[in-house]
Amino acid sequence: MNDCIFCKIIEKQIPSTIIYEDTVVLGILDINPANKGHVLIIVKNHYPDTITTPEDEFVSVMAATKMIAKATITALGADAYNIIINNGKASGQVIPHLHVHIVPRFPDDGLHLEWPHKKYAEGEIDEIAGKIRGELE
Ligand code: 5GP
Ligand code: ZN
Asked: Which pLDDT score, from 0 to 100, does residue 2 have?
């Protein structure tokens, strides 16, 4: 038995405030919004994260995200927006079913989604870039 909350929302076993639906994604309002109008674009099939989601479904998720971000910021009169995907527990992902957050932003809205900027040691940036390039070969 799959006890994933988002699978249950997609199957309409748990109620949600739906703003958009097609064959691949469901768009709902987050129940505990960072700002009012905070949207979740959820892929209908269960995949834990970005890497495990097939390319065609991920492309559909991102196309829906772009379209719904435009509608959301227009509807809310927002100044700006964040588009966020958390992948894995250490990133802050709580529900391991791929979803995109669209967070409408306003000047001085009190949200602090920025992160501190770290420094590389001498030569480290090239070493890390080399490792990533190696995996891409
Ligand atoms: P994550 O941290 O996994 O990227 O984000 C999960 C999000 O799902 C959170 O922002 C949380 O508020 C939202 N959420 C959790 N349970 C429910 C629910 O039952 N309904 C809705 N609409 N959102 C939920
Ligand atoms: Zn699921």
From this structure: 79
CATH number of the structural domain spanning residue 53: 3.30.428.10
Catalytic residue among 99, 101, 112, 117: 99
Domain count, the chain: 1
Pick from 50, 72, 71, 74: which is nearest to 61 by CA? 50
Number of the ligand 1 atom closest to the C-alpha atom of 92: 2
82 lines ligand 1 (CB under 6 A): no
Q: State the pairing for strand pair 80-84/18-21.
A: unpaired
Is 0.90 topped by the overall pTM?
Answer: yes
Confidence band for 114, pLDDT divided at 50, 70 and 90: confident
pLDDT at position 13 is 97
State which residues form the domain around 75.
Answer: 5-136
